Amino acid sequence: MLKCNTEIMKDLKKIEEEKNLLLSKEENQSIIKYVSEADKIIPDYNYDDTRREIDELDKKEIYLRGLLQKSNATVIVPEFNMTIGDCLVYLAQLSSKARVLKYLASREPKARTLQYQRQVEFSEALYDINKAKSDYEATQALIVKLQMAIDRINLTNLIEV
């Protein structure tokens, strides 16, 4: 069966939810509390069955993550001539760069910072704030373009599952 990367990611999310549900059920039902034998209610819990189900989900997760890793390492995102994995690293780098540029772009060229011993202290930017704003906007536009390219390839790249 062929599935796109996005479908596989959704399958992984579903596996995670199923596993969390099993673990939660196990936590709630693996031990019972009661006052007397007459009050004792034994839930439908089986240690071996639960372990087996979790192990099966773990195997599915390993298999699907392996498929995605192979895809991320080999499939090229044409607009950027990089693999999906490289694009994800680049996206993180651009996001970090954008945070710094946003900070630099938000500063005032010259500002009074504080009064110290009856003297006013000033701070002055040693860079062109408008250039920082322009660089920030360009970086944000590149992030959007990169995210769209990654999303597009994740929706169109098909993997045999």
Give a summary of the structure in a few sentences.
The chain has 161 residues and is α+β, with helices and mostly antiparallel strands. It contains 4 helices and 6 strands, in the order βααββαββαβ. It has 2 domains: 1-74; 76-156.
Describe this structure in words.
The chain is of the alpha+beta class. The chain folds into 2 domains: 1-74; 76-156. 64% of the residues lie in helices and 14% in strands. The strands form 3 sheets. The chain has a two-stranded antiparallel ribbon with strand order 1-6. Strand 4 (110-116) and strand 5 (119-124) form a beta hairpin. Helix 1 (5-29) runs antiparallel to helix 2 and helix 3 packs antiparallel against helix 4. The radius of gyration is 27 Å and the shape is flat. The mean pLDDT is 95.
Order of helices and strands: EHHEEHEEHE
Number of domains: 2
Query: How far from one another are the termini?
Result: 5 Å
Q: Strand order within the widest sheet?
A: 1-6
Approximate helicity band: 55-70%
Count of distinct strands: 6
What's the main sheet like?
2 strands, antiparallel
Mean pLDDT: 95
State the low-pLDDT regions, or none: none
Rg over alpha carbons: 27 Å
Please state roughly what percent of the residues sit in beta strands, choosing from under 5%, 5-15%, 15-25%, 25-35%, 35-45% or over 45%. Answer: 5-15%
Helices, by number, come to 4
What oligomeric state do these chains adopt? Answer: single chain
Features:
two-stranded antiparallel sheet, about 160 residues, single chain, alpha+beta, 2 domains
